[in-house]
Amino acid sequence: MRRVIFNQKGGVGKSTITCNLAAISAVEGKRTLVIDLDVQGNSTQYLLGNKVTDSDKTIAHFFKDCLSLNLFGNGTGAGLENAIHETPFPNLFIIPSHPELDPLQSRLESRYKIFKLKEALEKLTGFDSIYIDTPPILNFYSQSALIAAEKCLIPFDCDAFSREALFTLMQALKEVKADHNQNLEIEGIVVNQFQKQAKLPKQLVDELINQGLPVLSAMISPSIKVRESHTESKPLIHYVPNHKLTDEFKSLHLEIHQS
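^ that's the sequence the OP posted. Answer follows.
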């Protein structure tokens, strides 16, 4: 199963949700791959503890290879396999991001390489689950991920501005589905930073539900443990396995796998 975690608004917890769901999947015995398409590389830092400086060992090399086809249609054949890194956690792997993604984008767009990630992932074997982290903008890389994925999770951080942006996002996803990936399923909206005792977050979530949006039942509370786990480069299932927040991510993981 290929899942993309996407929202055009930054700071909604995409990388945190991506890495923690992937880590739970791996703990359950599934060979799990994270693909970091965000030039900021937060998922890379979270799971490896550092950025990867050699672009030939990152997703950037795959996209550079897409541009290196010669007159006979042959590239260097790098594929995705050469960019896969083991993380310190069993069954959990990552294809890191790299700053070279940024200057590559315009060339990839002009040569219409938007389907290359999908083609590569359909050939990739050996993984039970794939989670794709995306940049907070509908650009070449996030579109490539949406085209390559089977399901899409949308983080929402209980903010009035996020609510307004959500409707624009839902329309954009519908267009990607109609134009490029008819099999894409909007799996649900992940409510992040949800304060149960506060009035505004509950009001915002109720409004989304009443408007028929696919809000998932499992919601993620705010906690300093998230920042601590980022600093330690340990997903919550490894950092604080018995914490309430870890249980919330487990509930979210269970919910999406039962749907």
